[in-house]
């Protein structure tokens, strides 16, 4: 404020600041012609028309569309460099075609369809996002497929090793089965012998029981006879003692 010849007061400092801001501040307002927004705001705020300089940006030429799309497509890492130029031509063709169809739509339906440079930039951005996302998705699938193939190869190798081990073990099992079969045959022969011997032993046991029963009966008879003879024997001993005296 002193350099401008003003007194160093609060009011002068604030006025000096506001003047400098008004002199140097540049405000740019961007409006799209789509819809009624621009119309409504122009009626509500006349300063938008009276106190501004209006720059009407007309339609981009085809060369500008190709240059802009090539510039942004060149920054997409997953896009091959040899495809940048053809895709830029395609995007420019799509945008100009939509513009032509919008004019035809206006003539036929009396309705507007606006295409702006922003919509063209959104087209490029959408394509870049879709390309990057799909490329990542495909790479992930490729990675999973490769991992699956590696696991299949690994499993195949393990199965081959197991088959070899199984073949060796199968021979061992066959040998053991043959030995077991021989042992079963031997056991069957021995079992027949044991059964025959057991039958003989059973018959002998039956005969022994019959003899035991006969001996038991005879023993009982002898004991009864002995019991009957004991009084006579005692009387004989007594008579013998008398004779000795």
Order of helices and strands: HHHHHH
Overall mean pLDDT stands at 85
Beta-strand portion reads under 5%
Stretches where pLDDT falls below 50 for ≥5 residues?
none
Shape: rod-shaped
Helix content percent band: over 70%
From the alpha-carbon coordinates, what is the Rg to the nearest angstrom?
Answer: 61 Å
Major beta-sheet overview: none
What would you call the structural class? Answer: mainly alpha
How many strands? 0
Spatial gap, N to C terminus: 184 Å
Number of alpha- plus pi-helical segments: 6
Please give the structural blueprint.
Layout: H1 10-24, H2 37-44, H3 47-50, H4 62-73, H5 84-109, H6 117-244
Main attributes of the structure:
single chain; mainly alpha
Structure description:
The chain is mostly helical. It is built from 6 helices and no strands. Helix 4 (62-73) packs parallel to helix 6.
Would you summarize the structure shown here?
This protein is mainly α. Helices cover 79% and strands 0% of the residues.
């Amino acid at each position: 404020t002193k350099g401008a010849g003003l007194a160093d007061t609060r009011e002068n400092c604030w006025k000096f600041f506001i003047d400098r801001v008004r002199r140097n501040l540049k405000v740019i307002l961007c409006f799209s012609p789509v819809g009624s927004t621009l119309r409504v705001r122009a009626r509500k705020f006349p300063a938008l028309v009276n106190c501004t300089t209006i720059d009407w940006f007309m339609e981009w030429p085809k060369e500008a569309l190709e240059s802009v799309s090539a510039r942004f497509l060149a920054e997409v890492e997953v896009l091959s460099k040899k495809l940048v130029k053809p895709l830029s031509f395609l995007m420019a063709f799509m945008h100009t075609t939509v513009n032509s169809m919008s004019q035809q739509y206006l003539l036929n339906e009396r309705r507007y369809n606006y295409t702006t440079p922003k919509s063209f930039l959104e087209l490029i951005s959408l394509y870049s996002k879709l390309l990057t996302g799909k490329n990542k998705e495909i790479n992930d699938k490729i990675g999973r497929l490769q991992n699956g193939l590696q696991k299949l190869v690994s499993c195949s190798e393990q199965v081959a090793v197991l088959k070899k081990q199984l073949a060796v073990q199968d021979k061992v099992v066959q040998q053991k089965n043959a030995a077991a079969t021989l042992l079963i045959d031997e056991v069957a022969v021995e079992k027949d012998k044991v059964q025959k011997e057991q039958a003989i032993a059973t018959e002998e046991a039956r005969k022994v029981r019959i003899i035991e029963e006969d001996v038991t009966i005879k023993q009982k008879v002898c004991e009864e006879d002995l019991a009957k003879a004991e009084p006579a024997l005692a009387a004989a001993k007594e008579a013998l003692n008398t004779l000795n005296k």
